[in-house]
UniProtKB/TrEMBL annotation:
Its EC number is 4.3.2.2. Residues 333-447 form the Adenylosuccinate lyase PurB C-terminal domain. This is Adenylosuccinate lyase. GO terms for molecular function: N6-(1,2-dicarboxyethyl)AMP AMP-lyase (fumarate-forming) activity. Homotetramer. Residues from neighboring subunits contribute catalytic and substrate-binding residues to each active site. It holds the Pfam family ASL_C. Keywords: Lyase, Purine biosynthesis. It comes from Halosegnis longus. Pathway: Purine metabolism; IMP biosynthesis via de novo pathway; 5-amino-1-(5-phospho-D-ribosyl)imidazole-4-carboxamide from 5-amino-1-(5-phospho-D-ribosyl)imidazole-4-carboxylate: step 2/2; Purine metabolism; AMP biosynthesis via de novo pathway; AMP from IMP: step 2/2. Residues 30-316 form the Fumarate lyase N-terminal domain. Signal peptide: none annotated. It is an enzyme of class 4 (lyase). It catalyses: N(6)-(1,2-dicarboxyethyl)-AMP = fumarate + AMP; (2S)-2-[5-amino-1-(5-phospho-beta-D-ribosyl)imidazole-4-carboxamido]succinate = 5-amino-1-(5-phospho-beta-D-ribosyl)imidazole-4-carboxamide + fumarate.
Length: 459
């Protein structure tokens, strides 16, 4: 995008939503991928110098090599790209992105190291490690923290509104009352479990370094006395990844699928929340703070639309579609290797970006909503039939085997009042203490232990 307006971006991720996706640039851009490949090649070269007897690097040479990825910038990325597409400094165009990285590293390495750059490796040895060196921090440093912020917000709102009674709806119909805080607590608890799954998936990302068919053949034929599987395990662990001992040319990517699935689970929780909050706004259970100067509708000036939740829903739905596709695709490869997954994996960052936009929009939406307790209370009071469950349950306790039928006859499909219930109570053959118990029931207080359940968020 250098020198070009964001308005010319092909994707909204780099155009309209660029300000939201900026935190992912260090992990999702092509420059980031090139830098990660350089890091793998350099660290592999250093590990070889510690292992192969006739090859060594001085501390100064190691520092210079590491500096070529630690200080890697846009100009360096341009050089690698030029090596791939046009040629550079006497190198012909490689038309191969990993080979271009190899030549870039050669320019920073002493001549004695040149034969050992990319020694015994296939491109996928470099790529699978580089990709996970980007996926891991993208999840751990960008996406998971944003999800934790959302969970914290939901937890705070749940606690603040634990006693705010409202009408629940099952099948879209008035149901047993609940509290707004308890409903938010459900989302907070679900999201917490999803975050834990995501943390585990990111912590268990794996790497392979085993050559063209996963057999260490090139390494073994050159240096048969070296334990190459042990070398590989140590090297992969030094990058902060778990070692994949058995592979074809490719890392099977079940670990990436676990990350995608965990993200999708978290997204599903938020999608459920987005839609429910949207409905609560529609029912006027929730009001929205207005933003000075903001237009709600181009033709209806009075409107304050729940656009943040709608935007979150759209982006999370797009993310989930991409995550399902990615998870299904990257875990398959014809025989020992085919290249179709290469272009697919370049879209991991886009899926993550839609996640991030969705989280940001949901967060903004939650910051604007305020419970309209008066509306909630008025609707509860105007729907007295919802205490029917309480009435028939108490009557069952008192031995009335026709309790359900009597309440059903009074309430099903009918508009009833509390006075209708009181007339029923006065006609019942129950003790005065039970009659008083029934008279005390009201839609606004029939919420069980909803307020206490908020404390179970962390269980």
């Amino acid at each position: 995008m250098t020198g070009r307006s964001s308005l010319a971006a092909v994707s909204p991720l780099d155009g309209r939503y660029a300000r939201y996706t900026e935190p992912l640039v260090p992990y999702a851009s092509e420059q980031a991928l090139i830098r990660a490949r350089v890091r793998v090649e350099v660290e592999y070269l250093a590990a070889l110098a510690d292992t192969v007897e006739e090859f060594d690097l001085t501390d100064e040479e190691r520092d210079r090599l590491r500096d070529c990825y630690e200080s890697f910038d846009e100009d360096d990325a341009a050089v690698v790209k030029q090596l791939e597409t046009e040629g550079w400094k006497g190198y012909s165009a490689t038309n191969h992105d990993v080979k271009a990285v190899e030549y870039f590293v050669r320019e920073h390495a002493p001549e004695s190291a040149h034969p050992f750059i990319h020694f015994g490796l296939t491109s996928e040895d470099v790529n699978n490690l580089a990709q996970r060196l980007l996926v891991k921090p993208a999840v751990e440093d960008v996406l998971a923290p944003k999800l934790r912020e959302l969970r914290d917000t939901l937890t705070e709102m749940a606690r603040a509104n634990r006693d705010v009674a409202m009408l629940a709806h099952t099948h879209g119909q008035p149901a047993t009352p609940t509290t707004f805080g308890k409903e938010l607590a459900v989302y907070a608890a679900r999201l917490g479990r999803s975050i834990a799954e995501l943390d585990r998936a990111a912590a268990n990302l794996t790497g392979k370094l085993a050559g063209a068919s996963g057999t260490y053949a090139a390494h073994q034929v050159a240096y048969p006395d070296i334990d190459w599987p042990a070398f590989s395990e140590s090297f992969v662990a030094s990058l902060g990844l778990s070692h994949r001992a058995l592979s074809t040319q490719v890392n099977p990517c079940d670990d990436l699928q676990s990350v995608f699935d965990a993200l999708r689970n978290a997204n599903n929780v938020l999608l459920d929340m987005d839609r429910d909050i949207w409905l609560y706004v529609s029912k006027r259970y929730l009001g929205q703070d207005t933003v000075a100067g903001e237009t709600g509708s181009s033709t209806m000036p009075h409107k304050v639309n729940p656009i943040d939740f709608e935007n979150s829903e759209g982006n999370l739905s797009k993310a989930n579609s991409d995550l399902v596709f990615l998870g299904d695709y990257v875990t398959t490869s014809r025989l020992q290797r085919d290249l179709s997954d290469s272009t697919v994996k370049r879209n991991i960052g886009a899926a993550f970006a839609h996640c991030l936009i969705g989280y940001e929009k949901a967060s903004r939406g939650l910051a604007k909503v305020t419970p309209n307790e008066q509306v909630m209370s008025e609707e509860l009071e105007s729907t007295p039939e919802i205490i029917g469950e309480a009435v028939q349950t108490i009557l069952r306790r008192e031995g009335h085997d026709d309790a359900y039928e009597r309440v059903k006859e009074l309430t099903r499909g009918q508009r009833v009042t509390l006075d209708d219930f009181r007339a029923l109570f006065d006609d019942l053959d129950v003790s005065e203490s039970v009659r008083a118990e029934l008279h005390a029931i009201a839609p606004t207080n029939y919420v069980g232990v909803a307020a206490d359940l908020v404390d179970d968020i962390d269980r």
